[in-house]
Design brief:
heterotrimer; A alpha/beta (102); B alpha/beta (120); C mainly alpha (110); A: 102 residues; alpha/beta; Hypothetical Protein Ychn, Chain: A; C: 110 residues; mainly alpha; Arc Repressor Mutant, subunit A; two-stranded antiparallel ribbon; 49% helix; globular
Chain lengths: 102, 120, 110
């Protein structure tokens, strides 16, 4: 019984990531997409919250959205896995359900 | 067919966006099918349930009375985050329907226990 | 579109539902029914008034299955079925009765 949580808003603008981390249960996954990818960057005000959450949750980030916004894998927090669209689909299959933090 | 346990998660205040209204429509339509429906209000979603909404001067329809009809539609499980209530200074008496207060840690389990989660 | 009731012109949408609910009066229902060649009996008025009360309380029109159940509860079991309501309102209790009652078209109603 595990959930794939998707976050598509910047943590600097909205509280989606914060709520997601509050309600995501141990063993579930967080996929950062669209403006949500800013939470995957190292050196931001949210890095600590993400790194802390990584002890309980698996973090993924959608590569095309990262690339579109001018960031590289080297800009990301260590341990976050990059996925392409096919990887996104795989994740939705792997996890039992998806909770979209819109 | 197996009856699916559906959780409708509401986390937006009413009127600023149309999420609340869309959730109401979807719950009412969904209730016509054999689903086991629960509603969860977290974050600003709690403000949807505030008593005494009066939209006359903003010229938007006040849809909040619909929550009181949910019981007739056999939608009886309405959960609210205790922490979100406290953060917003709301008490049970401020809400227009009977709700069950849950801690955020209990809400994690609740999401797990449902087959489908609809987010608004 | 519009209808004329007691010398007043009332705006409706293209399906004939009143745009301004506050303009409703019994003559609105009578005018609409006349155009449909539909007689309005006391049983029709029971349903029309029930719908208006429901809308005033819950800000929406009830789904047909909710209406059926509620009518049966309020006016007697023999009236609490779809056949009874469809006999009264052949175009559908949701659509036709709501229109006569001055309510918007029920959402999710085909």
């Amino acid at each position: 019984m595990s959930i794939l949580h998707t976050v598509n808003k910047s943590p600097f603008e909205k509280n989606n990531l914060e709520s997601c981390l509050r309600y995501a249960k141990n063993g579930s996954a967080v996929l950062l997409i669209e403006d949500g990818i800013y939470a995957a960057l190292a050196g931001t005000a949210f890095e600590k919250a993400v790194v802390t959450a990584m002890s309980e949750l698996d973090f993924y980030c959608l590569a095309p959205d990262m690339k579109a916004r001018g960031f590289l894998e080297s800009n990301m927090i260590d341990g976050i896995k990059l996925v392409d669209y096919a990887g996104f689909v795989d994740l939705t299959v792997e996890y039992e359900k998806v909770q979209a933090w819109l | 067919m197996k009856i699916k346990k559906c959780l409708y998660v509401n986390r937006r205040a009413p009127y600023g966006t149309s999420y609340a209204l869309e959730a109401i429509d979807m719950v009412l339509i969904g209730s016509a099918f054999d689903q086991d429906i629960s509603l969860l209000f977290i974050d600003d979603g709690l403000f949807q349930l505030k008593k005494g909404q009066d939209t006359a001067d903003v010229e938007i329809k006040n849809h909040s009375p619909a929550y009181r009809a949910f019981e007739m539609y056999d939608v009886e499980k309405i959960y609210v985050s205790k922490e979100a209530m406290a953060a917003r200074g709301l008490k049970r008496a401020d809400l227009l329907v009977d709700v069950e207060l849950l801690s955020d840690s209990r809400i994690k389990e609740l999401m797990d226990e449902h087959d489908i989660i609809f987010s608004f | 579109m519009s209808i004329e009731v007691n010398g007043k012109v009332l705006e409706t949408d293209k399906e004939g539902y009143l745009l301004d609910l506050s303009q409703w009066e019994p003559a609105v229902a009578e005018t609409m029914a006349r155009a449909d060649r539909q007689e309005l009996t006391p049983e029709h008025w029971e349903v029309i008034h029930f719908l208006r009360e429901f809308y005033a309380e819950f800000a929406m029109a009830p789904a047909v299955r909710i209406l059926t159940r509620a009518i049966g509860k309020k006016f007697g079991k023999e009236k609490g079925n779809a056949r009874y309501l469809y006999n009264l309102f052949p175009y559908g209790p949701g659509k036709q009765a709501c229109r006569y009652a001055g309510l918007p078209k029920p959402s999710g109603c085909m």
